[in-house]
Amino acid sequence: MNSTEAFRVPSFACRHCGATVVLPFADLGMTPLCQTQIAPEDFDKPERYFPLQAYVCTQCWLVQLRDCISSGDVFTENYPYFSSYSSSWVQHAKCYVDRMVGQLGLSASSLVVELASNDGYLLQHFAPHAVPVLGVEPSRSVAEAAQRKGIRTETCFFGRDTARALRDVYGAADLVVGNNVLAHVPDINDFVAGVKEVLTPGGTVTFEFPHLLNLIRFNQFDTIYHEHFSYLSLHAVQAVFRTAGLALYDVEELSTHGGSLRVFGQHAGGVLPLSHAVAALLEKERIAGMLDGHVYARFAEQACASKRDILSFLIDARRRGKRVAGYGAPGKGNTLLNFCGIGTDLIDFTVDANPAKQHTFAPGSRIPIYPPAHVRSMKPDYLFILPWNLKEEIMAQTAYIREWGGQWVTPIPEPRVWTEPVAPVQEG
């Protein structure tokens, strides 16, 4: 039995189009929720595990997880992910804000609404331009961090009803922003319909999300986790927008998060002209086989091949007496650690800049998480970068490991050893 036959196709309806024709995409086994940390006093207590299985709808080509947990289980009041701990991501947000203010003519009479605004990493950059903003963030801990910065933030899950209520209080938005949120919502139709409700007639919505084409092409199986209910191609997003009464008018390919798309939308029938980039990228996806079930069926074996390569590298390093430490404790890292069965037998510890994660243990693997200074103290031979999408930033911050001959390792698309930091890619 091959890996694509190893899990039964369940009977469930596509969360976008309602079709029941779905094919297996990836089976990463049973894993705990990726953004949980284990406190020392809970080390010996059991964890809850959930099936991590993704399927593709052969009607609208939306890749999606089975409905086994709710968004409320994932995005808790003490959600530990704070966007501002990545300086490159904050700079990416600033470049975007500066561009949108000029491109859309935003002013003191405008309103910008960001969905999943986190700790204000993006909205803070509108203040120098005197553009009013509103953040919508379901997790209280990060919403309060934004509020402490003076950023007006509502703590709630977004959808059609919420959008109407927010519009009644604050007015309609000239720009709606959603970075790395579209994949995180269980009811994608209701979420995008909410955008239509809150958007002014001539307004623009932009979403950024990891591009499914890159996930498949570069074996990015670790970006599959319970927070990500959907995995998105431009074809799938165009279909979701059309259902909600919105229309794409432009798209850009970005390097962030291993290769992302930034899409621009407006109300259906809007006045902004359709960019040639939309048709070009749709054709690129078609040529790559994104409308062919065989491409999706092969991915499960790609993930297993990556798992074997990662384990081979770590086992060989241990046999040679090398010490391996991790850098970062992201959601994708926890998928990788649990799918590959990696524990402290292969990685001694990991570090993270977020104080909320320090002096805890990673879920499932029980690998201890320390502050970044622990790397200098322990002097590992290899620094295994779990948030590999931030490798340039992390390598620059940890260039000191070369003092003792340390090297960096990125696991995706296959294990690669780096002896020198790499230059960052600049984009807005």
Task: Kindly summarize this structure in a few lines.
The protein has 428 residues and is of the alpha/beta class. Helices cover 31% and strands 21% of the residues. A hairpin with a 5-residue loop joins strand 17 (407-410) and strand 18.
Question: What's the gyration radius in Å?
Answer: 21 Å
Q: What does the largest sheet look like?
A: 7 strands, mixed
Helix content: 25-40%
Please write the CATH class name of the largest domain.
Alpha Beta
Rough outline: globular
Task: Report the structural category.
Answer: alpha/beta
- The proportion of strand residues reads 15-25%
Number of strands: 18
- What is the distance, rounded to the nearest whole angstrom, between the alpha carbons of the first and last residues? 46 Å
- Count of individual domains: 3
- Annotated CATH topology of the largest domain: Rossmann fold
Q: Specify the CATH homologous superfamily of the largest domain.
A: Vaccinia Virus protein VP39
What's the average pLDDT?
92
Task: Give the uncertain stretches in residue-range form.
Answer: none
The helix tally amounts to 13
Main-sheet strand order equals 6-5-4-7-8-11-10
Label the CATH architecture of the largest domain: 3-Layer(aba) Sandwich
Explain this structure:
The protein is an alpha/beta fold. The chain has three domains: 3-61, no CATH class; 83-296, Vaccinia Virus protein VP39 (Rossmann fold, 3-Layer(aba) Sandwich); 300-418, Rossmann fold. Helices cover 31% and strands 21% of the residues. It is built from 13 helices and 18 strands. The strands form three sheets. It has a seven-stranded mixed beta sheet. Helix 4 packs parallel to helix 5 (188-198) and helix 5 (188-198) crosses helix 7. The longest helix is centred in the C-terminal third of the chain and has 21 residues, at 299-319. It is globular and about 65 Å long. The chain starts with 21 loop residues before the first strand and ends in a 10-residue tail after the last strand. The model has no long low-confidence stretch (mean pLDDT 92). It comes from Acidovorax delafieldii 2AN. InterPro entries: Methyltransf_Zn-bd_dom_put (IPR013630), Methyltransf_Zn-bd_dom_put_sf (IPR038576), MeTrfase_14 (IPR013691), SAM-dependent_MTases_sf (IPR029063). GO terms for molecular function: methyltransferase activity. Residues 256-413 form the C-methyltransferase domain.
